[in-house]
Prior knowledge:
- The complex is a heterodimer.
- By secondary structure, chain A is an alpha/beta fold.
- Chain A is built from seven helices and 13 strands.
- The interface between A and B is large, with 80 and 91 residues.
Amino acid sequence: MKVLVAVKRVVDYNVKVRPLADGSGVDLANVKMSINPFCEIAVEEAVRLKEKGVATEIVAVTVGAQQSQEQLRTALALGADRAILVSTDETLEPLSIAKCLKAVCDSESPDIILLGKQAIDGDNNQTGQMLAALMGIGQATFASEIVIDGDNASVTREVDGGLQTLTLPLPVMVTADLRLNEPRYASLPNIMKAKKKPLDTSTPEELGVDVTPRVTQVGVELPAERSAGIKVDDVAQLVDKLKNEAKVIS
Amino acid sequence: MSILIVAEHDNSTLNIATLNSVTAAGVIGGDVHILVAGHGCSGVADQAAAVTGVSKVLLADSASYAHSLAENVALLIAELGASYSHILATSTSNAKNIMPRAAALLDVQAISDISAVVDADTFKRPIYAGNVIATVKSTDSIKVILVRGTAFDACAADGGSASIESVTGDHDAGKSSFVSEEVAKSDRPELTAAEVVISGGRGMGSGENFALLDGIADKLGAAIGASRAAVDAGFVPNDMQVGQTGKIVAPDLYVAVGISGAIQHLAGMKDSKVIVAINKDEEAPIFSVADYGLVADLFVALPELDAAL
């Protein structure tokens, strides 16, 4: 059984980004880049499926600039067998990425496709759902548990208010939520081995995909700043302020 | 222009989150229709027809839509939505699951989590955990939009008298089946709709200690939330998570207890009207957004607060 896992290169989650002075975009110069945390959870799940004997091969894929090879190497160090970079310098939106991933899936024919539920740069939460739509297959988003039983997947999903369980025939697209697993750290020997694993490169043009953006970013700005308020001395003063100053409790 | 709003509901009650999208639709301008897709959900259609500003309700009642399976509902939205200029839904976990799928079927780039409408094809939305607000312009002929509920006030749930039209035909993609649902039963208000939210973080120390929040929540009529750190630590379930990757809340009063204030948590609560932070570390970043900060051991402060209310 083949698992395809898609990953994205994003600004590290510890970095607080700022707009460029002219408001044309976000200042990404010399900013630390990492694999998107939810993609890392997806890779970990793929590796666990292989360790359980469910999966036999893991293919890691990304769509993005040449530097995204670093994140593919991270996926390979975590346990993916080979990687594919769909290389482009175009500004990518979820629909374009989903179309590129679909083209890759058409030639790879994976049984299970894993993605993170959301990338922490654009905060879109769309790519997995779009990929499943384009492929005409079932989707299980925001997964907290995946069980493969023969030709079916049983997936527990994080939904508003609780959990929902679905069964879906393979092939299936699943997006990883926070509690699906805790990703391991890549060991040094595995990082060294990852450098020798195969990494193929393609382009959207070669895949026959038009990645021209449909939504353009007109500008960016800082959100309205909240100013720090006051420190209260004790609980009594806090309750007094909430009652008589903020008037939010009675 | 004509706008289709996909209703959020449980087959018996219209979720008030839907009303935020009706307000956003009013800012865009145009004829506003609501789609109620479900099973045995005609009562929801009646409620939707009463919402101010709505001219028509489309009722798609079929077993295929009973559990809001994305594969089935997205086909329906793509079919009906093709004749609209905008398709909106409030950004619930259900809508986040379905709307991008419908958008891809329509070959449209969806726009997630808009916080403001600039004009009919230009919107503002937070990116990078809300550290930056982007203004984006869509060139698609149909705009598929997820609306950030906290950014638009709910419109009036009554006063309208829309017509109700049944949708014929059915979409059963046969790609997924519903097995079960475990929904936590609570007498407390829903996190995203509560006027008061009290959240605990890693400082709570354990899941059992979240009980310290119960009495206060009861007295304030509050919902109880948590930071990602508290969810990561296994103290509480993920549906309590407030933050960039959890729920976005903007209550009148938000009380953060034992929460340091990581970027990703602030993204989910910094639009609250009044923020209170209780933390023993006076350097905690949460104090930089708090209107009232109390530097104290929460295990002392919480019982005191409970007693003082």
